[in-house]
Amino acid sequence: MQARDIAVQVPTVTLEDSVATAVRVMALGRLPGLIVVDGQRRPRLVLPGTQVLRMAVPRAYQDDPALARAVDEAHADLFWEELNGLTVGDCVVRGVGRLTSVRPDATLLEVAALMARLRSPLVAVVEDHALLGAVTLDRLVGSLALAGPPGE
Amino acid sequence: MTGILALSLFVVAISFIATEKVDKVKVVLVTAGIMIVLGLAPGSEVFFSEHEGIDWNVIFLLLGMMIIVGIVKQTGIFDYLAIWAAKRSQGRPYRLMVMLMAITAIASPFLDNVTTIMLVVPVTVVVCKRLGIPAQPYIIAEVLASNIGGASTLIGDPPNIIIGSRAGLSFNDFLVHMTPIVVITFVAFVLLTRVMFRKSFQYNPERAAEIMALQERRAITDTKLLFRCLTVLALVILAFSLHSVLHLEPSIVALVGAGVMLLVTKADVHDVLEEVEWPTLVFFAGLFVMVAGLANTGVIETAGSWAIETFSDSPLAAATSLLFGSAVLGAFFDNIPYTATMAPIVEEVVAQMPDADTGQALWWAFALGADFGGNGTAIAASANVVALGIAAQTGQRISFWEFTRYGIIVTVLSTLMAWVYVYLRYFT
User: TM spans, by residue (chain A) (predicted)?
Assistant: First the structure.
């Protein structure tokens, strides 16, 4: 099997979208991450779910776990409100994410190796700079299990 | 000819650093490399000559303290203290500002200013948001307090580390000569903030209850770790102050302290080493090579001779020029490269002074000017740049001029007070 065989269509976000929108898109689509595209729908980068979270959690709490502990439960649930209109583009400048992609003819081994190496549960399938779809970790593992040796 | 070439390279590099158009570490490494390749800096001597090459005392003192601070900050003590202060202030803005400034000024002499700011500013933003007041005045006040407080010890501010190493001044020398004026200046600064930020002090009693919900006790999860860290830190400071008995260089004390801290806290070495600001250490090394290039080609000697000719008859004029000149130049350039460049020139002038005490007075004038100049503008010290960065990330943007208009006032006040102190203590 090749990447094109197991690729699925996924919703994307742009650099201009707010981080809150990005989180919402990921949550509603039940995605393990997000693909960020430019105005021409060309993929710019792939953000694993944890990196989307990294954009959403105020930096101060990430750098200082003691400060996060000191916030009471009621306010802790509302940390989203501190995003202050931050966009995906603002966070990309700070070095979050990279373009994790394969060609449509990549084998499942290539996709699996890339996911493992870059710790990304989402890989964009790209041809001639155009986004054809994405391979998710679920989809890859499912396909590998189905293609596994009989009797196991 | 080589002197002109070295000076030209140096000036170009400093202008790149000042304008921040290129990463400053890249700038010093490239310039240092060019100076060595062209034979302007003294080849392999840059690694082995303390005064005409890389000053490893400075670099290893910084490394040791960065490791110590990297472990101490994991204890959550700063978050605890800042929230405790906020609660004690009961949300009254000026009281809150004074308490936060006091915490910053007391921590700065023992931890580096950048770390202190990185620990105090985020919790300040949280507290101010709860109180529904802008955090900018508090952040600016903390940075200014940090630069003032850091001036009081050998390890409190990078210019002091450079000056201490070059002049052979001990931790106690700094305590005896710098701490009195720093305390006086800080008190004056606290009073000044009442006027400077008067429009920001709006008390909102309904919001004050919000900060009482913060749980400062949860910030400290490991009291044993905290106790061990504070004990080792206290021993390190004690060892600094026992220099005349132990005869250990500050860098050795810091490195041994860092090792002991790693042992007793069982901190993960790799995690702790990630806290070390390696680019800063490399920046220092490159900077020392650049200054070695100036020394090797006679630029420092020429500048020193000119300074001696101009000021040898009047040590007070020399001290005055050093103090005000350093404050002005230190305000517009990063005060670290400024101090590294000027230190060998000051050393030449000090050597020509009629007695050792007068010579030492020049070092104190130099240190006070460079340290207090760090408050002058938003780019004058690393702590200022870091604070503005954190403020922007938290949506509390502070512009260059917003910081600088307060910084200039504080720099003028503190420098004038420092001059009066130097004059009264060393020249009457």
Answer: none
- Is the ipTM above a cut-off of 0.90? no
- Mark yes or no for CB contact A70/B216 under 8 Å: yes
pLDDT (tens digit, 9 = 90+) per residue, B104-117?
999 988 887 888 88
**B390 touching chain A per CB within 8 A:** yes
Question: A71 to chain B: nearest residue by CA?
Answer: B214
Q: Is A43 strand, coil or helix?
A: strand
Q: Which residues of B fall within a CB distance of 8 Å from A71?
A: 126, 214-215
Question: Strands A43-48 and A33-37: what pairing?
Answer: antiparallel
Evaluate whether A143 touches A108 at the Cβ level (below 8 Å).
yes
The secondary structure of residue A32, as a DSSP letter, is S
- This prediction's pTM: 0.79
Pairing of strands A12-14, A33-37: parallel
Q: What is the pLDDT of residues A74-115, one digit of tens each?
A: 888 878 776 767 888 877 755 566 889 999 999 999 999 999
- Chain A contact for B141 (CB, 8 A cutoff): no
The whole-number average pLDDT for the span B39-48 is 83
* Nearest chain A alpha carbon to B213: A72
Interface residue B79 vs chain A (CB under 8 A): yes
What is the rounded CA–CA span in Å between residue B13 and residue B28?
A: 7
